[in-house]
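ok trying this again, last paste got cut off
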Amino acid sequence: MKKSPSTARGTRTRQALLDAAEQVFSEYGYSDASIVRITERAGVGQGTFYLYFDSKLQIFEELVEDLNRRVRHAMAEHATPEMTRLEREREGFRGFFRFTAEHPALYRIVREAEFVSPRSLRLHYTRIVEGYIEGLKRARDAGEVGDIDPAVAAWALMGVGEMIGMRWVLWGRDEAAGDPADPLASGTDIVPEHVFDHMMQFIERALDARSQSAMPREAEEARS
């Protein structure tokens, strides 16, 4: 059961425990993480932990929820109603990559949730994809994108962002750049601008209503 702090100091302490848990779960994995390690990292006593959380599993699940809330905020932070869907995609991906560069633990923790708390994993992706699907539906109806299946497109776009982020943000953070096919040879912890631009060109071609409408004509010309 979630325990809400009644004071500003309590709110700060609870967040300090979540921040410490992010570091500990990322560093040690769920099995080797412990409440002792979390409280030591947060600089509080073990008794304080139980004022806010009942167990290691509970803080893990609430950490997944906390990271989900913050990454969704980062993705939407710079988007405005006046933007086109493609402009919103660009801003959303920039926000996602900025957040994951600052919180690379997101990848590791979400992957562990598949085994530790499948409910949390499902909640994490559902909360992201629900808004994505609705936004793509509106864009399709407004003619901003082609005649796409919003659900398929949403999951495909999430996959693009996740894998690009893992390749250039998470993996090989301390390695020298090398073979493009080697996932541990990025030599960076940010998505390079040329990578981001090529990714967006790929997405724009996939979603662009003009390219979708041109496809039947091109096919007809090829047959004639």
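PB: full thing came through this time. The CA atoms of residues 218 and 224 lie 10 Å apart.
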